[in-house]
Amino acid sequence: MSRFESLSSNDYHLNILPATPKIDLSLPQGESGGFYGNAGEFLAGAGAGLWAAGVTATTIFSSAASVRSFGSGGGGGTPPRQGFSWTPTLPSLASSFRSMSSFSKAVGDGSSTGLAGGWADVTGRKIYITSPYDVVFATERGLKDHLGWLLEHEKYAESWELVDKHPEIINGEKSEENLVYDQDSVTHNDTDNEADTESIAITDTDSDDKSTIREVKRQRGPQFMFTAAEKEKRRIGELWIGRLVGQNQWTQAAGICDKVLGTSTRWEHWVWVFEAAGKVKEITPYIPRERLTPPIPSAIYESVLAHWLHEDRMFFQRLLLEDWGVDKGLFDLDVVADFVRRRVKGDEEELEDIRQRRRHAYRGWRLSSRGKEKEGDDDDSKKEAQIEEGWRLLQLCLAKLYMAMKHPREALGCYMRLKAEPEVMSLIKEYYLLDTVKDNIANLLMLRITREQLTTTPLDELKQLTAPAVDLLVAEAGHGIVGPERVVQQLDEAPEMEDGGRILLFIYLRRLWEADRQLVEESWADLAVQLWAEYDRPLLMEFLTASQGYSLDKAAQICEARNYIPELVHLLSKTGQNKRALYLIIDRLHDVAHAIMFAKQQDEKDLWDDLISYSMDKPDFVRGLLENVGVSSGGSRGGVEVVKLVRGIPEGLKVEGLKGAIQKVLREYAVQWSVAEGVARVLRGEVHGRMDELKKRSRKGVKFEVRIEQAMPGAFEPETGSKGAVCAGCHHQFVFHGRFNPEVPIPFFLVY
User: Fold this and answer.
1) Residue 158, class by beta-carbon neighbours within 10 Å (0-12 exposed, 13-18 middle, 19+ buried)?
2) Among 343, 333, 267, which Cα is nearest to 302's?
3) Which of 444, 485, 589, 724 gives a 20 to 30 Å CA spacing to 695?
C-alpha cells in the first residue's frame, strides 16, 4: 500500500494567503552587525522568514526541517487514521531563520525556476494544501504571467494587444520613471552629438532578457524618449511582422507595419525588406504620409515612387500629389523631378516612333479584300492613346513638382503642353511670365481649341474660347513685352495656319482694332482688308468706308476675287469709275433701288442717262425705274428722266406692272402739279400785294434834309454842268460820299 493511501481527509490542510505587496526578503542586520542587533529588524526578519516559509513550503518540507513528529516523544511513525492530532517538530528559531535567509537570497537573486524569477515576486493570492508528505502550492497569475505565456507560444497579436491595453505590465505604476532612450529611433545624424545626452538607470522586471535595459543614453528631447511599454510593443510587433513574412502573408504584414512600427529606422528596415521581396504594392498604402521625427530617409519614398512610375502612372500621380504631397518634405523634389523628366522624354520618343510608322504606313496604305484596316494600325493607335494618356499624367506631376520647387517658368511650359488654360493664365498674371511665351503665341491662343476646331467650330465660339489669351495680348500691346508686330508675324507664319487659315490672326487683329483703330489702320490696313474679307464681311464694308490707309487697288482685287460687288462698287466710286460701278449694280446686283441711290449720290446727268440706257432691255428695271424715278428722283430733272425713260422703252417689250407704274408716276406728278399750282397762287397773291404797296409809296413825297460833310480826299467830284441831285435849300449838288443825317430835315429835292 502506498503511503498516500493511508492518509485521510483530516491529514490535508488548506491555507490561503491574501495578496500582499512585494516585500524585501533580505535578512535583518543590526547596527553593530549582530544577528539580533535591533528588535524591530528582528521582527521584520521573522515575518519575512515566516512568509517565505509559507510561500516556499515545498522547499521547507523537502529539507531537514520537513519532519513528522507525533506527540512529545518525537520519533517518526504513521499517524492514526482518525481523530489524530500531531504537531510537526520544527527546528530551532535560529536554524529556521538561517534556512529562510538562504532561501530568500536564492529567490531574490532570481535563481528559482519560477516564471517571474521566484514566488516572492508573485503578488496575487496564494493557496497551498499541506499533507504529511507533500505541499500543493497554487497562486493567482497576473497579466504579466499571461504576457509571458503568450510570447512563449508565439501569439504575438494577442501579446501586442495586451501590452497596448495594459502598458502598466511593462511600465509599472510610475510610467514616467520608465522612460527609455530608443537607439532605433535615432538616425546617424542624431547620434553624432554626444554632448547632449545623459545617463539614466532603468530597472526592467521583464523576464525577457532581450527587452531588459539596464543603462541607456537619453537624448535631451521628447522625440527620442519612449516608455518601456512602447518599446516592448515595437519589439513584439516586429516579431509579429516577421512571423507573417515568414508565412508569406505580406498583405497582413504590411497592415501590421502601419500599426506597430513607430520609428523611422524601423520603417526604413521593413520597407527595404518588402521592396527586396518585390512586395512594394503591399507596403505602399501604409508608409507614413506625414513627416516623422526624425524623418524616414527620402530614398525610401523615392524608390517607391520610381517603382510606381514604371508600374502604374495613375497610382503614381495619386501617390505623389494626393497621398504624400509635394509640399510635405517626404522626398527630394529634384530627384523625383529628374526621373519623371527622363520618363517623359522616353514617352515622347516612343510617340514619335509610332507616328513615324503611321506616316510611312499611310503612304502605302491599302485596304484588305474585306475592306478592313490592318490589325497593326489598330494596335499602334491603342498604344499611342495609352502612352499619350500617361504622358499627360506625368506632365501634370512635373508641373506640380516645379511649382513646389519654386520654378514657375518650367511649370508654365508643362501647363502649356497640357493646354491647361486656367493654370497658364494664372501663372502668367501672377508671375508676369508673358515673355516666356513670346515665341509661342499660336499655342497660347490654342489652349482651349485643337487644329480640327479651327475649321469646324463657328467663329463666335472660337472668339469665346480664345478671348482670355487675346485680351491678355491686346492689353500688353502697348507695354513692349509682346508687341503686336511679334504677334502678327508669328500668327501669320504659324504652321497651324495651314489647316485653319489665319483665323487666329483675324481674331487678334479684330480685337486690336477695337482697342486701337489707328494702330491697325496705320500698320496693317491691307492685312485687315484681307482678313475682314475672309471672316467678317460686314466689318469689311465698315472698314472700307471709314479707313483711308489701305491700298484701293489691292482692296478692289480682293473684293473682285471674292465677288463682293457692294464693296467693289464703293471702291470704284472712290477711284472715279462710276460707270463701271453702276454697271456692276445693274448687271451683277440687279438692284434698281441701289442703282438709283448711287446715281443720286453721284449727282451726274450722264449716270442717269447710262442708267436708263442700261435698263431698256430689262423689264424689271424699267418697272423699277418707273416706280422709283419721277418725283423721288430729285432735282429739276425728275420729269425729264421719266419722259426719257418712257420714250426709250422699246416697242414690243413686255413689262409686267407697267400700267401700275405709270399710274403711280402720274399720280405723283398730279400731286406735284397741284402743290405747285397752289404755291404759285400764293406767290402771285403776295406779289400783287407788294406791287400795290410799292405804287402807293412811289406817289408820295418824302421830306428830308441833307447835311453836307466835307469831302474826303480823293473822293469823286461830279463834272461841272452835269446833272444830278441838288438840295432845294442850299442849291448844292449831292455828292456820292454824302451821308444822310436824320436830324437835319430835308423839305424836298429836285432832280434835273
Assistant:
1) middle
2) 333
3) 724
Could you give the dihedral angle defined by the CA atoms of residues 115, 117, 120 and 123, in that order, rounded to the nearest 10 degrees? -50
Sequence-distant (6+) residues with CB within 8 A of 84 are: 10, 70
Using CA atoms, how far apart are residues 347 and 389, in angstroms rounded to an integer? 10
Three-state secondary structure call for residue 468: helix
C-alpha 572/C-alpha 556 separation (Å) is: 8
Q: Quote the cell numbers at residue 287.
A: 508608409
Task: Categorize the per-residue pLDDT at 143 as very low, low, confident or very high, splitting at 50, 70 and 90.
Answer: confident
- What does the block give as the cell for 723? 446833272
pLDDT reading at 375 higher than 70: no
Rounded to an integer, what distance in angstroms lies between the CA atom of residue 368 and that of residue 18?
Answer: 98
Q: How many C-beta neighbours within 10 Å does residue 523 have?
A: 17
Residue the block writes with cell 528596415 = 269
Mean pLDDT across the chain:
75
- Tell me whether strands 725-727 and 225-227 are parallel, antiparallel or unpaired: unpaired
255: β partners? none
The answer, as to whether pTM is greater than 0.70, is no
- C-alpha–C-alpha distance, residues 8 and 553, integer Å: 142
Find all residues with CB under 8 Å of 444, minimum gap 6, and list them: 416, 424, 437, 469, 473
Phi-psi region of 721 (alpha: psi -120 to 50; beta: other; left: phi over 0): left
Residue scoring higher pLDDT (737 or 581)? 581
C-alpha span between 397 and 507 (Å, rounded): 33
Q: Residue type at 237?
A: G
Task: Measure CA of the first residue to CA of the last residue in the chain; give whole Å.
Answer: 205
CA distance 418 to 391: 10
Q: What torsion, rounded to 10 degrees, do the Cα atoms 49, 52, 58, 64 define?
A: -20
- What is the rounded CA–CA span in Å between residue 170 and residue 206? 7
**Residue 703 near residue 747, CB atoms below 8 Å:** yes
DSSP per residue over 274-320, as a string? HHHTT-HHHHGGGS-SS--SSPPPHHHHHHHHHHHHHH-HHHHHHII
Q: Which of 11-25, 101-115, 332-346 has the highest mean pLDDT?
A: 332-346
Helix 658-699 and helix 619-628: axis angle, to 10°?
30
Grid coordinates given for 511: 480685337
- Report which of residues 360 and 146 the model is more confident about: 146
Per-residue pLDDT tens over the stretch 543-578 = 999 999 999 999 999 999 999 999 999 999 999 999
Looking at the DSSP bridge assignments, the partners of residue 739 are 707
Using the 8-state DSSP alphabet, how is residue 586 labeled?
I
Average pLDDT over residues 55-74: 40
- What is the model's pLDDT at position 369? 45
Q: Give the separation between CA 105 and CA 101, rounded to whole angstroms.
A: 6
Residue 613 confidence class, pLDDT cut points 50, 70, 90: confident
Quick one: pLDDT band at residue 102, thresholds 50, 70, 90?
very low
